[in-house]
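Blinded run. Sample ID left blank on purpose so nobody reads anything into the name before looking at the predicted structure. Input follows.
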Amino acid sequence: MVVVVAFALLALGGCSAGGEDDGSIRVVATTTVLGELAQNVIGEAGEVVVLMPIGVNPHDFQPSAQQVAAIQKADLVVANGLGLEEGLNDVLEAAALDGVRVWDVGPDINPRLFVEAPDADEHDEGLLDPHFWLDPMKDADAARLLAEHLSDIAPDRDWSAGAAAYVAELEQVHQESIEMLAVVSDADRKLVTNHRAFGYFSDRYGFEMIGTVIPGGATLANPSSSELASLVETIEREQVPAIFTETVESDTLARTVAAEVGYEIQIVELYTGSLGEPGTEGDTLIGLLRANAQRIANALG
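Blinded prediction complete.
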């Protein structure tokens, strides 16, 4: 299902998150991915407004005054809740204290810990990984839980039907991903990525994250020369054929690393923190998941 979510409503200076007070449910989602998930569950029974524009890195986002006001008027705010939206933390905490219903999805879907990795440091070891949406089965859990939250707000409506239909789509793309990734041997299931966003994906499909261009679980750190040199050594030792970059982040550092590798290595772009532009492979969450699996299979298979 392709769903058009009101990504630009706030940015264009239009009406607030709830629009007219017509009794429909009013949901504000922080990221494009969460907005897509929410709209698929809600369908035509409510309005979903997404704070972050397409292509924006959630780690870097800062809300406008109008977006803060929209949060205050929402029946439900859907957020990641595991430190993904650093620039929204204070706003969401204040809204919750004011009585706004804020649901942090991440803590409720059995999140994983950032595991020890070559680029791990004392600042992010032990933290919970916020990138759960790259695992379709975690998205399915989130859809079911969202239906429960909506039922608490508007118990006169059946929210489970929309959730069930979307869960079926997510389960299908999960099976498709298994089939696509079957071409990658166990020995070749090694990922070098822009940052540590693919832990849930790796856990679900049997991959190992052996290195990242940017250290840590966010995209805000700057790697040192020694860290980049160590990554080059890891790539060469493991004979990795590709570095996976992101649509929401520059690939300049990844290309710098690739230029130092002693053989030709691919640079392959994946969808991470945002849906793609309309008309691209990743313009829905289902499309994002499918495109990532296919690109990884093509690069490593």
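Unblinding after everyone has recorded impressions. The radius of gyration is 19 Å.
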